């Protein structure tokens, strides 16, 4: 029999899979910078713009993503592990990801520093 934790873990895994698929579809890095920095060097500003717009739509319009975001928003106040997951999925993780992308664009001279 599946318990609540197994169900939750499968939801998180599904969100990770969806995120990876979306990154590939918009030609932005799937892995974190410290795992594969080379993939960040080849990302264009246009790809980042498209991905960012589509991610906003996804997190605010897709039923599964909206439910996941709401669940994490509520659970972050009840459990330190959920607070960390919330930060990695909704706050710090995306900010760190964009920081790495923009740093590469600045180093390539696409953006001024």
SSE order and pairing:
Layout: H1 4-25, H2 38-41, H3 45-61, H4 63-75, H5 80-107
Helix pairs in contact: 3-4, 4-5
Provide a compact summary of the structure.
The chain has 113 residues and is mainly α. Helices cover 74% and strands 0% of the residues.
Question: Could you explain the architecture of this structure?
Answer:
- This protein has 113 residues and is mostly helical.
- The protein has helices at residues 4-25, 38-41, 45-61, 63-75, 80-107.
- The N and C termini lie far apart (55 Å).
Q: Main β-sheet: number of strands, strand sense, barrel status?
A: none
The percentage helix is over 70%
Q: Tell me the span between the first and last alpha carbons.
A: 55 Å
Q: What's the Cα radius of gyration?
A: 16 Å
List low-pLDDT spans: none
Order of helices and strands: HHHHH
Shape: elongated
Structural class: mainly alpha
Instruction: Calculate the mean pLDDT score and round it.
Output: 91
Strand content is: under 5%
Number of strands: 0
Count, helices: 5
Any descriptors?
5 helices; mainly alpha; 113 residues
């Amino acid at each position: 029999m599946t318990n609540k934790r197994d169900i939750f873990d499968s939801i998180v895994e599904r969100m990770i899979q969806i995120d990876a698929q979306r990154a590939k579809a918009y030609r932005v890095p799937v892995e974190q910078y410290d795992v594969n920095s080379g993939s960040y060097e080849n990302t264009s500003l246009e790809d980042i713009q498209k991905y960012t717009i589509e991610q906003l739509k996804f997190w605010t319009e897709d039923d599964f993503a909206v439910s996941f975001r709401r669940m994490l928003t509520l659970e972050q106040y009840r459990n330190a592990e959920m607070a960390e997951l919330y930060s990695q999925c909704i706050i710090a993780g995306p900010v760190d990801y964009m920081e790495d992308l923009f740093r590469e664009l600045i180093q390539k001279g696409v953006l001024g520093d």
